[in-house]
Amino acid sequence: MIKAKEVDVVVVGAGFAGIYMLYKLKNLGFTSRVIERGDGVGGTWHWNRYPGARCDIPSLQYSYQFDDELQQEWEWEEKYSSQKQILEYANHVVDRFDLRNDITFNTEVQSTTYNEEQGRWTVKTSQEEIVCSYCVMATGCLSQVNEPNIPGIENFKGELLHTGKWPHSDINFEGKNISIIGTGSSSIQSIPIIAESAKTLTVFQRTANYSIPSNNGPMDPAEEAEIKSRYKEFREENWQNGFGIAGLANELLATETPDDEIKETFSEHWDNSGLGFLGAYADLMLDPNANEIAASFVRDKIKEIVNDPDTADNLCPDHTIGCKRLCVDTDYYETFNKPNVSLINIKRDPILDITENSVTTEKNEFETDMLILATGFDAMTGALTNIDITGKNGNKLSEVWANGAKSYLGLGISGFPNLFMVTGPGSPSVLSNMLPSIEQHVEWIANCLVWMRNNNKSIIESTESAEEEWMQHVKETSELTLYTTCNSWYNGSNLEGKSKTFLPYVGVPPYAEKCEEVSKENYQGFVFDKSN
Ligand code: N01
After folding, report:
1. What phi and psi values does residue 460 have, to the nearest 5 degrees?
2. How far does the centroid of ligand 1 lie from the alpha carbon of residue 146, in Å?
3. Rounded CA gap, 295 and 299, in Å?
4. Angle (deg, nearest 10), helices 288-305 and 259-272
5. C-beta separation of 504 from 490 below 8 A
6. 502 alpha carbon to ligand 1 midpoint, in Å?
7. Is the distance from CB of 121 to CB of 409 less than 8 angstroms?
8. Which conformational region is residue 149 in: left (phi greater than 0), alpha (psi within -120 to 50 degrees), or beta?
9. Residue 50 pLDDT exceeds 70
10. With the CA atoms of 287, 289, 292 and 293 taken in that order, what torsion angle do they form, in degrees rounded to the nearest 10?
11. Which of 83, 187, 189, 375 to mutate to test the pocket of ligand 1 (most atoms within 8 A of CB)?
12. Residue 258 C-alpha to ligand 1 middle, in angstroms?
């Protein structure tokens, strides 16, 4: 029998989390192997190549800060980077730090099983078995796509695409009748570009979404120079506000501001801020009255931009603004003024089925050559529960999490020793700038492994009570905000049958402080194989 390969750490995923984890492990003298199902690095930026894919966090913030030369030397082309340049950056980092040979590509992790006697994990991939002391799941928050089971979809004979696993070849929209289902960020970014050459584009909308113009453009050299002259301080300042993103902190309250001043402030933010629109006032995600002021400002903008009153009405959301992830666009609402674009509100005219060449609703049949699913993800948990992860006592993670994901700090899971998550459920992750949050987690995990090595420990597991207490805190914190007031992928309600648990932790600074406190107190809330 061939002996399984052995390493200290298996890292699952070669997105930004997996790349940095590998860099840290190599530098600290741990043996490791990264397993990646794609044929290249970049994670979300490898898969999401749909037209218009771009980041909604400014480029000078959506980048690594662990290496000063890297952040000084890399030049971002635009204020908000395109998928193409972000992927180039991920590849540049991998080559710059000579990481590529430590990554196995085109390989899916099928299962990982904990052996209690040995205190080791066996990771089974489509190619081989690897035995390791630690597993780091760098699997991403938005990587397991949601492919809805719409009646008849299997009969469709045209091109069937999903924004979350877009082909790597050029896709031609010219002269085609195109239907797109879903109106989240992916759809909102791609619709204006597809509409440029499609013969017809029909947008099937289940829930209208708020979107703010990105006002993207070339990087301003003066702004770049200014930020680069004090990059460390700039990063530190951003980390101190609730989302770890510049411009999203403000002490003024909308409910205490005169109407004309509010309108002026929102107009400025509409013209300049993208996601920072929600940073205009401190109470927008806390007070329903304040939120409604912002929501109605955006609804008025939609009605101003969209010519057809019925279409404008259907595009106006009625839920709390920001409760679903706010979208940022280029010409989204304007696109509905084009003669080849139409909107179908499927709450009023539901999709009945899909035939070999059409989408049929109660009232109409739409000829379709290309059907695009922009239907999002089994967010935050899907990438983990779709791997067969077996912890202590033969418990499967998918069963343990069936009634809602639980973790300690989004880092560890009780019953699954020596398994870490990067930006797991229960950490700020998707409610923060992902890059600094990834760096914070990777550094915390790396420091923990070094501490264990120095203190002669080989097994770490979070306790059930620490986990219960933390998840209760995550819940209570979310209930202080308006994030829990609508259906969203933050709380699993975008997917039928998924447990409705609010998964991200709201608040970067208190979270980072808690993580630091835990490690300073010899990893309070975790137990080790030898008493600590
Ligand atoms: O996915 P989504 P996404 N029948 O879940 C609809 C990040 N991101 O890929 O709202 C019909 O937001 C669903 O309807 P509803 C960002 O964090 C960032 O667009 O659930 N419709 C919704 O309209 C973002 O939030 C960037 O009622 C169905 C849409 O499909 C996250 O990724 C760019 C349906 C899915 O929207 C996910 O974005 C892109 C069904 N059965 C993505 N099932 C940037 O950086 C779902 N829908 C800018």
Report:
1. -130, 140
2. 9
3. 6
4. 60
5. yes
6. 17
7. no
8. beta
9. yes
10. -110
11. 375
12. 35
User: Ligand 1 test: best mutation among 485, 494, 496, 500, most atoms within 8 Å of CB?
Assistant: 494
151: CA distance to ligand 1 center in Å?
20
- Residue 532, pLDDT > 50, answer no
Output the CA 6–ligand 1 centroid distance in Å.
Answer: 39
CA of 32 to the centre of ligand 1 (A): 34
473 CA to centre of ligand 1 in angstroms = 27
What's the token pair of residue 526?
């975790």
pLDDT band at 4 (very low <50, low <70, confident <90, very high): confident
- Tell me the mean pLDDT in the region 195-212: 98
Mean pLDDT within 463-482: 97
Q: What is the whole-number distance in angstroms between the Cα of residue 373 and the centre of ligand 1?
A: 10
Q: What pLDDT digit, counting tens, does each position of 7-37 carry?
A: 999 999 999 999 999 999 999 999 999 999 9
Ligand 1 atom 43, closest CA: 375
Please state whether the predicted TM-score (pTM) of the whole model is above 0.90.
Answer: yes
pLDDT value of residue 251: 86
Band of the pLDDT at 2, cuts 50, 70, 90? low
Residue 399 identity (one-letter amino acid): E
Q: For residue 114, what are the β-bridge partners?
A: 121
- Cβ atoms within 10 Å, residue 465: 11
Q: Which pLDDT band, with edges at 50, 70 and 90, does 3 fall under?
A: low
Q: Burial level of 393, CB count in 10 A (0-12/13-18/19+)?
A: exposed
Mean pLDDT of 93-120: 97
Average pLDDT over residues 393-408: 97
Cβ count near 79 (within 10 Å):
19
Residue found under tokens 């909107």? 343
> Using H for helix, E for strand and C for coil, what is the string for 1-36?
CCCCEEEEEEEECCCHHHHHHHHHHHHCCCCEEEEC
pLDDT in tens, 291-331: 999 999 999 999 999 999 999 999 999 999 999 999 999 99
Nearest CA to ligand 1 atom 8: 185
pLDDT, mean of residues 164-182: 97
Mode of pairing for the β-strands spanning 327-329 and 211-213? parallel
User: What integer pLDDT is reported at residue 40 of this predicted model?
Assistant: 98
Mutate-to-test residue for ligand 1 from 142, 378, 433, highest number of ligand atoms within 8 A of CB = 142
- Please provide residue 110's backbone torsions phi and psi, each rounded to the nearest 5 degrees: -90, -45
Q: Which residues contact 451 (CB under 8 A, 6 or more apart)?
A: 457, 519, 523
Residue 531 reports pLDDT greater than 60: no
Q: Which residue has 């304007």 as its token pair?
A: 334
Residues with CB under 6 A from ligand 1: 55-56, 142, 146, 148, 163-164, 181-187, 189, 206-207, 325, 328, 374-377, 430, 489, 494
